[in-house]
Amino acid sequence: MTSPLSDASLDQLFRSARTHNAWTDKPVPAETLQALYDLVKWGPTSANASPARFVFVTTAEGKARLKPALSAGNLDKTLAAPVTVIVAHDLDFGEKLEFLFPHAPGAKAWFAAPEVEQATAFRNGTLQGAYLILAARALGLDAGPMSGFDNAKVDAEFFAGTRIKSNFLVNFGYGDPAGLFPRSPRLPFAEAATIA
């Protein structure tokens, strides 16, 4: 990892990538979703805890289950997207640490306090959701991440009887440029960053 990516790659991942609100009807194959996860799983998390859980909603039946939880502003674009991913995190991530972090027996105890467990699951699950967006762009997919839904309804419908909690949604597919808003500005380095 000594060479930077090409400008074309950086454009695809960041500079030219946009948050899409409209979608073509081109489907996303199941193999692409598998490849997507197979990239995401390599992103770093605390103690390799990997608390994110992903539900790839691709069917009409799945979208019907999701629909009651969506805000009005997110309804049409989510129903039209080939894939909507529920990005969630498992508060029981510690149960997998013996497998995921084998060189530190007893690592589960590090996260035993409820506030540490919750913060760790949320923080690292959010990181993995960000990796998901970048991995999708790397595979040639467009992404439309969003809040604007009822987490409690999603959790009751998709995660009942578990300690998995939804965080945010991401629509994936092949975006229709006609649905893009003008590009919004970003803060310059001097307003957002310092070097200490």
Automatic annotation (TrEMBL):
Its EC number is 1.-.-.-. Keywords: Flavoprotein, FMN, NAD, NADP, Oxidoreductase. CDD domains: RutE-like. Its cofactor is FMN. InterPro entries: Nitroreductase (IPR029479), Nitroreductase-like (IPR000415), Nitroreductase_HadB/RutE (IPR050461), RutE-like (IPR023936). Residues 17-158 form the Nitroreductase domain. One of its GO terms (molecular function) is oxidoreductase activity. It holds the Pfam family Nitroreductase. Belongs to the nitroreductase family. HadB/RutE subfamily. This is Putative NADH dehydrogenase/NAD(P)H nitroreductase DKG75_12890.
